[in-house]
Amino acid sequence: MGNDKKIPAADTASAAKPAIKLKKGIYINREASWLKFNMRVLEQSLDEDTPIIERGKFLSIFCTNLDEFYMVRMGSLYDEDKLHPGARDNKTNLTSGEQLSAIAARTQRLYELRESAFAKIKKDLADCGVNLLTYDKLSPVRTEELKKYFTAKVLPLLNPMVIDAKHPLIRFENLRCYMLYKLKKNDHTMIGVMEFSDRLESLYRFSSGKKPSFITMEEIIRNLGEYAFAGYTVTSAITIRVTRNADIETYVEDADMEYNNDFSAYLKSMVETRLIKNAIRLEVCGESKSLMKFVTEALDIEDNLIYKVNGNFSYKYFFSMTRYLDKDLAQSLLYPAFKPVISDRLQNTPSMVEEVRKKDILLRYPYESMEPLIRLLNECADRKDCISIKITIYRLANHSRIVEALKRASENGIDVTVVIELCARFDEENNLYFANQLHEAGCNIIYGMENYKVHSKIISIVFSDDSGISYITHLGTGNYNESTAKQYTDLNVITADRQIGEDGVAFFRNVSISNVDGEYNRLCIAPKYFKDRIIALLDREIQKAKSGGKGVFIGKMNSLTDKVIIDKLCEASCAGVKINLIIRGICCIAPGKAGKTENINVISIVGRFLEHSRIYCFGEGEDRIMYISSADLMTRNTDRRAEIATPILDKDIENKIYGMLQVMLADNVNARRLLPNGDYEKAERSGDKVNAQDAAFICV
User: Fold this and answer.
1) Rounded Cα distance, 691 and 698, in Å
2) Span between the terminal Cα atoms of the chain, in Å
3) SS3 of 114, please?
4) Cβ-based neighbour number of residue 97 at 10 Å
5) Which of 69, 344, 429, 614 has a C-alpha 20 to 30 A away from that of 269?
């Protein structure tokens, strides 16, 4: 960071530490570790080496992350506490109720830190010539301008209502902002409710003044919304936002029994329940005892899940702010423009199919473009010798060229099978839409695999000509999503290896008949084989270390929670295996503990791009074995999902990926090192800056 300013980490708790400990021995509580990760995101909003609007985006991402954490993880703990109150976490031995209480207490501090971060961003924006104003600081001229705008453009889109016999209590929907008013008319007192419309712009730019000046829509409605209640006197008002439990569990048996085997109809009904499930968090701006009593009783929410907000509920407007600015000013407040490249080899080849047959291809998003993969699919869609294309889909871009290529292939008579995971959290409706589109184009659609999520990233292409059957297989660590491929770091290998090709075909055959016990030559498939292979290779490194050799493991992933693997890593450390872990998010192992984990080093990289690739590298030199995978070392991935890890067979590709790992381990710009006590500290900087997300280090 520019001047090493940093949010005080401590343990994200206030001065009076909670009695509940979220760490036990070498184990760190999953939820506590996630909060630490989100703190690292928040720290990026204070990094003065980062352009100011990008810092605002990090603040927005921090808030969005926290929203999802409450909807999913806190929601899951809430459900578990109701169903199995005595059940305990297998690492820190805490009940769900204890975890709920401890996390809720720590979150209070996060709100204070977020307000401080926003104040700093607002000041720095002003120093750059961009003002974010509050209503009470407006000049009379701007106040009058804003009232005219409100009357003409905002008021017509507001839907006020009063709560009485003819206007029953509305349902406070998930993540919606509402104004609540205590109203008086004659001798009657009642409550007014008004939802914020999605059609409203999030920012308003004032027409006057030399410098661009803005006010947020939240601030506008908070101060002028009472005009929607003509004829009433407003005696108090608050703004609220409710977060509801969005953790839904789906079971094939329920779809079979209640929806005539139509899993899509069953899932749609389950998704709709998110709007009305129990409230798991209430955010409030403003003061009113009577209104708070009303809303807390309506939501039946506990006091420790209510959080005071002094400013904005959301900072998503930072993503649209540059639309209102002059081009030169906007560019000075953003990261330099970045465009993924295409290597000369792939740019100049007349045929992607023939190029893959010559030599395996590595694509490194976002530094390299997804375009070659799309070209491959489009080429195959037009080839007479292509007889089938099979693909797993978890998340897609809103306007997916992958889907268009698949539809065209099907319309050209190629057998296209799409395993589309309808249970991809928060993408269920999008996936339902694309499933219907692909079905109408003649594709075979499979909705996952019994009660296992299909999280694998694989495309299996089969060719048939006079020389027989041949294969091209794509295996990746991230989704077939053109949008996120420009933001997430992911690895992709395209290979014509026959054994991998045969494994790919077998994988789709097994998914179609819900067989998790299929046999494979090269691919490691979860839930049956993946964890066992990881443990077997760690055992190999343990034996090398015990025999006087050098045992080495480098793992890169999003999260580490699987206790069996954590215990094996601890055993490997005790045996002398040198372990380097690059874990962006949750890490449930405490490194550097004498006699336990002293040979384990853990870093986290949070920067411009979201680190998303999973790499598992065992040994060194000619003895090295490397896999890339769709799976993290989390119990949900290893035991409850259909995942794929593929070996890197091409030594040139293996060396390139190994080089990337070495650069990440040397990062002294965005890296944070995990300490034995569970805190993170900034990586020490000696010599030149090393930013692992600098394309110059990727050697495209």
Assistant:
1) 10
2) 26
3) helix
4) 17
5) 69
664, 605 Cβ separation under 8 angstroms = yes
419's CB contacts (< 8 A; 6+ apart) are 390, 391, 392, 393, 446, 448, 449, 454, 508, 511
State the alpha helices, DSSP H only, in 471-579: 498-512, 530-546, 563-575
For 403-428, the DSSP string reads: HHHHHHHHHTT-EEEEEE-TTSTT-H
Residue 214 clears pLDDT 50, i.e. is over it: yes
For the stretch 430-472, pLDDT in tens is 888 888 999 999 999 998 887 788 999 999 999 999 999 999 9
Alpha-carbon distances of 690 from 46, 662, 694, rounded to whole Å: 19, 11, 8
Distance CA 159, CA 152 (A): 15
Instruction: Tell me how crowded residue 259 is: count the other CB atoms within 10 A of its CB.
Output: 15
The residues, any chain, with a CB within 8 Å of residue 99's CB and separated by 6 or more, are: 20, 22, 29, 31, 77, 89
Q: Where are the alpha helices (DSSP H) in 477-562?
A: 498-512, 530-546
Catalytic residue among 84, 188, 399, 455: 455
Q: What is the 3-state secondary structure of 193-213? A: EEECCCCCCCEEECCCCCCCE
474 tagged catalytic: no
Quick: pLDDT tens for 492-539: 999 999 999 999 999 999 999 999 999 999 999 999 999 999 999 999
Residue of 370, 362, 367 whose CA lies nearest to 340: 367
pLDDT in tens, 62-73: 999 999 999 989
* Spatial contact of 648 and 654, defined as CB atoms under 8 Å apart: yes
Residue 134: both structure tokens together: 């509050």
For residue 515, the surrounding DSSP H or E stretch is: none
Confidence of residue 82 (pLDDT cuts 50, 70, 90): confident
200 contact partners, CB below 8 Å, separation of at least 6: 154, 157, 217
Give CA separation, 618 vs 198, 356, 431, 551, 553, in Å.
Answer: 50, 26, 36, 8, 5
CA distance 596 to 572: 9
Of 102, 103, 101, 121, whose CA–CA distance to 113 is shortest? 121
For residue 239, give the nearest of 315, 313, 134, 163 by alpha carbon.
Answer: 313
Amino acid identity, position 268: K
CB 445 within 8 A of CB 407: no
**Contact by Cβ (8 Å): 592, 603:** no
- Cα dihedral across residues 396, 402, 407, 413: positive or negative: negative
User: Positive or negative, the Cα torsion across 163, 169, 175, 176?
Assistant: negative
Name the band, by pLDDT with cuts 50, 70 and 90, for residue 5.
very low
For 26-49, what is the HEC assignment?
A: CEECHHHHHHHHHHHHHHHCCCCC
DSSP 8-state secondary structure symbol assigned to residue 274: G
Q: Nearest CA to 589 among 1, 24, 12?
A: 24
Q: Count CB-CB contacts under 10 A for residue 685.
A: 14
